[in-house]
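Q: What would this chain look like folded?
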Amino acid sequence: MIRNIVGSVLALAGATAAVWSPFRAWYDGRHGRDYRIEDLFTGTGITDVKAEVIGSLFLPMAFAALLTLIGIVLRSRVVVAVAGVVVLGFTILWMARVGQAENGLNVHSDGRGLGSGVALALGGGVLLLVGAFVMSGRPRPHATRVDRLPPPTHPTSDGRPPEQAPPSGDAPAPSSSDGPRAPGRDPGREPGWDEGREPGRDPGSDPGQGQGQGRDPGQGQDPGRDDGMPPPEHRA
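A: My prediction, written as structure tokens:
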């Protein structure tokens, strides 16, 4: 904000100097409003024909001042810089054409040669460029990126609520600490896994399991019966 204010003040000062310069002496006491704008682009060069104000060097300077006002309102550094280029461009072009007509440019202390109007135009153009450089311009809107897809609105395939579902494309393997899971199923084990046995194994094939499974070890057996070897007198 401060940079825009300082740059705008410098630009306004430069535009004021540029607009005031045609009403000052440019060369040998001749004011800038007396030089025709078409003399800068014709083959005959600078002539002694007096120009109207609207058709003189006042025209590019007024156009540069208008660009300056537009640039300050829009806070556009480019527009203000273009205004400075216009002022400097026409001033340098005039100096080149006058140098051709006069066989060189001279500066004398008695007022002959280059006058104060040229200094005002050059100084105004420089101030416009400095003001455009100082201005910060309009703030740029921050670009927003969407790195993740929006969360799903329906429960996912692993039984998680939508708010606990991982982002799409990088879902980790479900574990025991990752929220609720499907009842009766451990997501960390293969399907068909049951507690106490290996997957795909028949519980009846385990030794010691079968008919006596699920009963008390002492239930249904004779306490006096010995399942070991018969006594020697009963051996055949």
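The first strand starts at residue 25 and ends at 27.
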